[in-house]
Amino acid sequence: xxxxxxxxxxxxxxxxxxxxxxxxxxxxxxxxxxxxxxxxxxxxxxxxxxxxxxxxxxxxxxxxxxxxxxxxxxxxxxxxxxxxxxxxxxxxxxxxxxxxxxxxxxxxxxxxxxxxxxxxxxxxxxxxxxxxxxxxxxxxxxxxxxxxxxxxxxxxxxxxxxxxxxxxxxxxxxxxxxxxxxxxxxxxxxxxxxxxxxxxxxxxxxxxxxxxxxxxxxxxxxxxxxxxxxxxxxxxxxxxxxxxxxxxxxxxxxxxxxxxxxxxxxxxxxxxxxxxxxxxxxxxxxxxxxxxxxxxxxxxxxxxxxxxxxxxxxxxxxxxxxxxxxxxxxxxxxxxxxxxxxxxxxxxxxxxxxxxxxxxxxxxxxxxxxxxxxxxxxxxxxxxxxxxxxxxxxxxxxxxxxxxxxxxxxxxxxxxxxxxxxxxxxxxxxxxxxxxxxxxxxxxxxxxxxxxxxxxxxxxxxxxxxxxxxxxxxxxxxxxxxxxxxxxxxx
Length: 491
Prior knowledge:
Blueprint: E1 6-8, E2 13-18, H1 22-34, E3 40-44, H2 52-55, H3 67-70, H4 86-99, E4 106-108, E5 110-118, E6 123-131, E7 137-149, E8 173-175, E9 190-194, H5 198-208, E10 213-218, E11 224-227, H6 232-240, H7 243-267, H8 269-284, E12 305-308, H9 311-318, E13 321-325, E14 328-332, E15 335-338, E16 343-345, E17 348-351, E18 364-367, E19 370-371, E20 379-380, E21 384-385, E22 391-393, H10 402-423, E23 428-430, E24 438-440, H11 447-451, E25 458-460, H12 471-480, E26 488-490
Parallel strand pairs: 1-7, 2-3, 2-7, 3-4, 5-18, 7-22, 8-17, 9-10, 9-17, 10-13, 11-12
Antiparallel strand pairs: 5-6, 6-7, 14-15, 15-16, 18-19, 20-21, 23-26, 24-25
Helix pairs in contact: 1-4, 1-10, 6-7, 7-8, 10-12
Pfam families: FMO-like
Protein name: FAD-containing monooxygenase EthA
Cofactor: FAD
């Protein structure tokens, strides 16, 4: 049903936040603590808080980062699991919202469709479609001084789902993890999971507990490493120190270790690769062919997959699951025929084939009535875009926890607002220097990144246009460097 009428927010807001997930709730908490005089709202297209952790409901859904860094610095992670279940992460986000009084500032079931900036008014005008309980749609318009985009980086409406030959011939069920049926019964069934990324390595051990057998079918291997389900150092610190102190120490410890291992992986890739493969071989035992765990690319050219306490390896060793590395020739009535001629029998096929990236939550944007192509913009400090005024974009790390960058970004937003108020400025915009060389936004070979290269903004070949995958470098650049750095211009 098309939008039948419009409603307008009566007075302009100071900040309008798009998205009530981990980033959006974190941005609101920063405003509450650091800019208590600012009026803000959060527009959330779903009916609940949580973002990713509310959307994904597939078996075993969990973080692939440790929760001491995926949580915020001010809100200690008190659960025993360092690699947490999706439901616990969602509860954590909800707790922040409730404790901070954020919930009453969220407007649910509002899908943002357009955002237009007026330089004359120094305001964003944002259009959202509100769907009520009866399915009726109504356009609502909001105005704000600053726009904070916390909508993530992938489409909620569709995942990456390649079409396979002869799919209709398959007599069983085909499921995509992003749209998991709540009533799917896989107990005693033969399951084939197509994929080798974080979703696949999560699904296989979770389903293997009750399925007859689970096969992970991968076109090419990924690096998979076992990580402890519980952080022994964190548990010890919590026994002897105040919770906030223990949380801070554990957080910094994990940040430092992650940065160290990433640096080693990039500087000595052959040594690091050999170590990862050796660790996997120790876990799976002598009966599993190591070709399934030997990628052709260097470590961290794509994201490393973590499995808590080696759960995937244990299921492979016990025979509850198996890995096949091959390509698909076609689906058959009873499963999948591979290029090698082998046929995998299946009652259920799960297409864990990845995400579909989008830019800015698919919001159409104009600056003084001129359309904006995000792929033509350059990222300023990894959180603002060239020549787009009063807009902050939250985009986390690919080699560490998303929240580390999200918290730096939300703190910078507050810092920027306070600086503008102190100087009487209404507009802040990073002006692009034509001499800055252009580079891809993400130096990553993963399929979902390569498919979206044209729509993602670019980064530059020098500061402040570079996108650091380094928390320490960003902390210096974002938290301590001058706001008025000569690139950011104010009016």
